[in-house]
Amino acid sequence: MNSTVRVHAQSAGTVPTVHVKNVSMVPNNESKAGAECKRVYDWARPQIKNFRHAIDVGAREGLFARNLGADFQHTFCFDFRDKRSEFKRTVDSMDQYTYHVVGLGESQRMAHTTNTRVGKIKEGGTVEVPIRTLDSFDIKHVDFIKYDIEGFETKAIAGSEQTIRRSWPAIVVEQNKGDMEAVSLLESWGYRCVGGFMPRNEDFLCVRD
Question: How would residue 1 be classed by pLDDT, with cut points 50, 70 and 90?
Fold first, then answer.
């Protein structure tokens, strides 16, 4: 199966914590998860310097990516689970997106997980997960990246080094259970952690001044 779809259709250390005021009510048909994604993006947006290309690592069904369509020229999405049908129903226009069904990591290899119902690559199990590096896609003019892949963030960032160093995008990365390894890697490349998004304090915004 072709892992990429482009469809034309209509529509470590301690880091500071940033508190964000509640936004206005979202439409009734918007899920709680979708509303949270919007709040995270609205929080990060002032730190984005340009709006050429965005990358969503752990795109799932597009609840975060749909916020990027109005701002960016194109958004490249990655998820090892094939959520393309749900994604098409979530975003306004697939003209603005490319969706790759593949896991991102530190090298090109085959990983494993137990099932594809959850978005966690467990490095064990019977379900094969093809892994590629983000750098292997050679995406240029990247101004924003979001990583949310359930503990695989550090490996994915390691495989994104060339892409990141080429444009120094603003980066939102999820870090769970106090593990700040991915943020520390970015800091070693000259990034500064602006803070964590409350109330969960698991999404961290990193920028390079």
Answer: very low
Name the residue type at position 174: E
Find the largest Cα–Cα distance for the chain.
46
| Cα 196 from Cα 207, distance rounded (Å) | 13
pLDDT digits (tens, 9 = 90+) for 101-152: 999 999 999 999 998 888 899 999 999 999 999 999 999 999 999 999 999 9
**Domain layout of the chain by residue ranges:** 22-207
Supply the pLDDT for residue 182: 98
Is 22-207 assigned to CATH 3.40.50.150? Answer: yes
What global pTM score does this model have?
0.86
Listed in order, strand segments (DSSP E) in the chain are: 4-5, 17-18, 53-57, 74-79, 97-101, 103-104, 109-113, 127-132, 142-147, 170-174, 192-197, 203-207
- Per the CB < 8 A criterion, the answer to whether 34 and 26 are in contact is yes
Residues paired with residue 75 on neighbouring β-strands, in sequence order: 54, 97
Q: N- to C-terminal Cα distance for the chain?
A: 42
